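User: I'm writing a tutorial on reading structure tokens. Could you give me a worked example: one chain, its sequence, then its tokens, then a sentence or two explaining what the tokens reveal?
Assistant: Sure. Here is the example chain.
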Amino acid sequence: MLFDPSPKRKREDLYDFDEELAKLQSYLGQPLVAVVGLRRTGKTSLILTALEESGHPYIFFDLRTISPSTKDLYQLVSKGLEDFLASGSTWTGVRNAFVRLLKLVRGVSISGVSVDLAWGRGERPMLTDIFGALNEAAGEEGSKLVIAVDEVQRATGQVSVALQNAFAYSYDHLRNLSFVISGSEMQLLYRLLEDPEAPLYGRAFLEVKTRRLARDEAEDFLEKGFEEAGVSVGQGEIEEAAARLDGIIGWLTYYGYSRAIRGSGLDEAWRSAVNLAGSELANFLACRVSRERYRLILKLLARGVKEWGGLKSGLEDREGKRVSDRVLYEILETLRKHSLIDEHNDFQDPLLREAAKGL
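And here are its predicted structure tokens:
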């Protein structure tokens, strides 16, 4: 159903993204594809639907919950491989060949569909060896195997370097693999692809962008979702919800689910969504060394203070001393890199703006 809060996997549940879906499907099998867009604009649903419909064998890795440790990376890879091996009768030939080849890789233990990867230094398998086994298995079956990595920019430090080096090696040498990477912190994702110091620099990539729904599309999405759920909602409420949620399909789905399934009104669903957005901002701030400076700038931006002078004065008034231009510049650039604000210092998500008011 349209209001199902979990990522979509069927075309009929993917509202009005036919153009983006067709483009991504046509790109699958190419060495590197980037799917970019703001948070909650349907990247994961778009990728999974394209993969399910493509017929390509695929492995999906979700980096949204990863922490910067080698142990977590290898456990994530292990989980993705287990999901692949447990995928029923689909791609039996590729899976059987992969199991046979993976058993030859150091640091790997396989029992049924259980895959254990050692992560200790000197014991763990190279990611390139795992990808190499996948490449050879796909080649034996005359297939292209797709490796999808969701929110790839969430990996940091040595984990990020290890992933990027494995992607670059695979791009250059493993012709039967196709990588699809996604990111909502778009400047960080582009830095992985376009920074001359990054391992992937110089590799051509294809791009698919997700988008906000136009106002009439947002209203149509809500109308169809409520009709599907058998719930009657007034046109005035639908129009207000579409206006307040600004075409972000993830928030429209959240409201629709809350209204249709939980019986929550628009204001109640809004407050709940703001609390969720506030948790995301809290997680962002927890990773900042100068978190109180970030907190203040986010609050000022949410209250409509966007000019350089006003933001700098706010910082200096709080700290009781002069603050350099460089400090404010780096704060604003970090907020842009994480796609929290745009080049005009406007929040890109109305729920994050509302949540920032209460920081």
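What the tokens reveal: Residues 66 and 155 are 7 Å apart (CA to CA). The chain has two domains: 17-209, 289-359.
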